Amino acid sequence: MKKMDRKTTGIIFGTLLIGLVIGNLSGTSQQSSLVSQLQTQVATLQSELADAQSEGVTLTSDKEDALSQVSALTARIAILNATIASLSTGEPSILAVHFSPKGGCADQVEYWLGRANSSVHVLIYSFTYDPIGDAVLATYSRGVDVKVVFEKQEVSKYSEFFRLAAAGVPVRNDTNPDLMHTKVAIIDGDIVLVGSFNWSAAAENDNNEVLLVIRSADLAARLEAEFQRIWATGR
Q1: The pLDDT of residue 52
Q2: Bridge pairing between strands 209-215 and 93-100
Q3: Which residue numbers in the chain have pLDDT < 70?
Q4: E-assigned strand segments in 11-112
Q5: Residue pLDDT, tens place only, 182-212
Q6: Where in the chain does DSSP place strands (E)?
Q7: Would you state the pLDDT for residue 23?
Q8: N or C: which end of the chain has fewer CB within 10 A?
Q9: CB of 139 within 8 A of CB of 146?
């Protein structure tokens, strides 16, 4: 199965490179070129998928691992095809869908925080999860414009509010007399993390939650306007 591991590593690395390219290219001609590149990548993945399926049929003790690789490759192909469709039609691209408990939601938040280049603006109901707090602090330390609005009724001694504020991260409490139940992060004006997923241990480990990762400048702009409205009235 070492051969399969090397293939998988190559696929993951190639996918990350594609994400970086997508985030920095614009214009019709560039999108056309990118579509061609992604289609080539899909063809390569389909070839890898065929190999994995073949190994899944022939292997005995390692069959379960091979079939897992088949599933991962199939998912990556679906994402790449969705990205191609998005670039061709101008529609938003859904980059990831994760579910709790323990379905990778927190990892996705930390991943995209680590990818931020210019800005991270957050509206969050409950934020008590230290690993995501660490990722926010690391992002801020890189010079990224980080701002976080907390729901004031959820700011307890366990909240990341105080730790972020002590480190100099601009944070505010929502002033809505009722609740700000929003859970959204807008990254670089292009990537949106949205869903029911709070940044808490309970949301990560216990609750049934969902997190969507969407690439859409239009959606990001609409949510950014809402963020700025709430930020302006925050305390």
Answers
A1: 76
A2: antiparallel
A3: 1-31, 56-62, 64, 75, 78-79, 81-91
A4: 93-100
A5: 999 999 999 999 999 999 999 999 999 999 9
A6: 93-100, 119-124, 145-150, 171-173, 183-187, 191-195, 209-215
A7: 53
A8: C
A9: yes
CB 219 within 8 A of CB 185: no
Residues 81 and 24 in one domain: yes
26 shares its domain with 124: no
pLDDT at position 2 is 46
Nearest-CA neighbor of 200 among 152, 149, 142, 154?
A: 154
pLDDT of res. 83: 63
| Calpha distance 195→78 (Å, rounded) | 21
Q: Helix (H, G, I), strand (E, B), or coil: what is residue 107?
A: helix
Q: Which domain holds residue 22?
A: 2-91
Last residue of a domain, one of 41, 57, 91: 91
How many helical (H) and strand (E) elements, i.e. helices and strands, does the chain have? 8, 7
User: Are the CB atoms for 84 and 38 separated by under 8 Å?
Assistant: yes
Residues 33-42: b if buried by 16+ CB within 10 A, e if exposed: ebbeebeebb
105 and 125 belong to one structural domain: yes
Q: What pLDDT is stored for residue 17 in this prediction?
A: 45
